[in-house]
Amino acid sequence: MEIDLWLYGPLARYAGPTNQGSHAHLQFSLADGATVADLLEKLGIPDDEKGITFVNAQLSDMPGMSADRSVELKDGDRVGIFHRLSMWPFQYRFGAATSPQLKDKMSQLPGGGLHHSPSSVAKTDSQ
């Protein structure tokens, strides 16, 4: 299967000749049934460098959570992986669609996970 892969920040170096410095974009071949963990292994990206991950514009992982390792990829999927030190992508500043796996991991955190909207920040600050 082929996936549309985007690597951002220092992770671009794992794309070889498609590295543009700040990002890399390539079509990447994987075996049918491959997972995000398989993709990371094939690329050689260590867990301590992987940050925010999107699969088909759905937030699937945050730094240190490893929520998406078992997500099975499908032919044509678009995957974006940001370096651990990358900032939250601007276009998602008011929230992002989130994978069921990440929602489950976040629900186990104190306070239920991320607070990235003005109303949730105000609510948290007043408690």
Describe what you observe in this structure:
The chain is an alpha+beta fold and 127 residues long. It has three helices and five strands. It has one domain: Ubiquitin-like (UB roll) (Roll), CATH 3.10.20. Helices cover 20% and strands 24% of the residues.
Task: Please give the structural blueprint.
Elements: E1 2-8, E2 23-29, H1 36-43, E3 50-55, E4 58-61, E5 78-83, H2 100-107, H3 118-126
Parallel strand pairs: 1-5
Antiparallel strand pairs: 1-2, 3-4, 3-5
List keywords for this structure.
about 130 residues, 3 helices
Concise structural overview:
This protein is of the alpha+beta class and 127 residues long. It contains three helices and five strands, in the order E-E-H-E-E-E-H-H.
